[in-house]
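Subject: two folds for Thursday's group meeting

Dear M.,

Sorry for the delay on this. The cluster queue was jammed most of the week, so I only got both jobs back this morning. I'm pasting them in the order they finished. Each block is the input sequence followed by the predicted structure tokens. Could you check whether the formatting survives your parser before we put anything on slides? The first protein is the one we discussed after the seminar.
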Amino acid sequence: MRELFGTDGIRGIFNEDLTEDLAYKVGLTIGEMHSDGKFLVVRDTRESGVALEQAIAKGIAKKGATVLLGGVLPTPAAALITKVKNWFGVVISASHNPYYYNGIKLMKAGFKLADEEEAQIESRLTQITDSALYSSGEIVEFPEAEELYVQMISQLFADLDFSGVSVAVDASNGAAYRTTPTVLEKLGMRVVCYYNEPDGRNINENCGSLHPESLAQKISGFDIGVLHDGDADRCILLSKDAKEISGDKIMGVVALSMKKEGRLQNDLLVATIMSNLGLELFLKEHGIGMIRTKVGDRYVLEEMLKSKANIGGERSGHIIFLDRSTTGDGLITALEFIKVMILSGKDSSELEAQVVDLPQHMVNVEVDDKRIADHPKLKEKVSQLQQSGFRIVVRASGTERVVRVMAEGQDLLKTKMIAEEIADMVRSLGGAQRR
């Protein structure tokens, strides 16, 4: 059973849940398991990133492996590069969380590790020794990783003329503050990048995909807005008239275009239990099937591989195009949508309006014990309310001490009341204050 690893690697508050000592031990463990391999280590812009990078690199090298330090790069850059090179990947990032969090994500040849592999690492972690008898590997700076990623993405979309498209980018003061504007400009777009001055503490701070209202004030005069999270494995978009284009809307629009191109495998899309029913209805109307999984891009990917689908993702904007990459890439997602704009001749506002959301309301409740999400009384209440026509999801967050409550229905006011009622029940069963 995994305890350290959540839905997206190891994550916690730096120097509390996640320490340099833990990172070093993770390095020792994975270095011992794969001492004959090469490891690419990248990080986002958090002030704790360098310390954790050095700790895990030192542990890996101490077991004889070679470590390549790629510096500040998006998570999907590590995925693309390690797939091509058949290397192991380590990403030091806490994605959308505040700067005082950080995390460790592990991948092998472009794919995040399976639950079983993470459980094996946890098991060996407690037994690993820092013996003086070791075969020392090496730690090497690898700055060319950034240019390699830029070239790879640019080549994926080199067959299309993007000139004339104007883009406002919100880089969230995170890992893509250089790469996204560079690629978009390389493809011929006019780009203005905001929130691209990281100082170690301003990552995700009132900007990025969790705060579209910031870029919305600057979108006038642009064809589209692109907003990343801290490690840029996701993006949401803004239409030219400042309407949010969620991951659901992006997936619906792009999947339909892929079908028209003959590129959509098995006429199928994989989403999670959190995706809006409006997406499902839109896809059905156009002859596209949809399979839901539990929350987490790893589970989306597992189902995509199983059902041979080449598009899948989450409402948050974490979208996987398997014929492009092995994981969610916010830059690829943005380019896929802009590609539809060019091919269809429709602007971002017209495309945004194609997929209509049903009313949905979410409440995050801080808890001391996330197992409250499985409380029998809570499940009974949810079952009763679902019978009256609402779609309800109650789940424990994989990265925070939070239970997420989502309700969906035809009427916004009633849907909101249902979500708040369930959230109040979570609090009464042991939750803390509202978030």
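Second protein, same layout:
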Amino acid sequence: EDYDDGETNFHCKKIKPSPKEWQLLRQKIGMVFQSYDLFPNLTVMENILLAPVKVQKRDEDEVKEEAVKLLKQVGLSEYGDAYPRELSGGQKQRVAIVRALVMHPEVMLFDEITASLDPEMVRGVLDIMQRLSDDEHMTMIIVTHEMNFAARIADKVLFLEDGKILEDTPGKEFFAKPKTKRAQEFLESMDF
């Protein structure tokens, strides 16, 4: 989507909003949506291999070997030949994370990825994100209402309302002592 105001910078370089620039930038940024967005007509493995093989022109055997390892890490090693319709919501979300990671992104974007999951599935997905932060030191931008998780993982919190940033605060500081009254009210409503 085009934006109306502001600018996008990546590695201190202003991105010119052109199709070519966006295509190059998208290869460096992984995105996981709350709706999974898996291709229903492809198996789990085919979903994972599609972009690295077709877009990045990587060797299919090499990517498949990496995908097998990542599926094992997220507890889905036996689902490579399954179709999305055969998976639970939490399993689909873990496949979507593997699909993004196999592209070797520099940054991962997570858009409310636990919103459509059963409460018991939320924990497994959040554990994967915690490992990405702790073990891989992955830069992640996370849109979430999971405040306990955000408090554990956030280096920085941007608190938004009506499309405006109300707070831009270090993570621990935001949860200990938010600066704005609106952020205080929000945290109180979350029983945080």
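Two things I noticed about the second structure. The helical segments are 19-26, 44-54, 60-73, 89-101, 119-134, 147-153, 171-176, 181-189. The domain at 30-147 is CATH 3.40.50.300 (Rossmann fold).

Cheers,
T.
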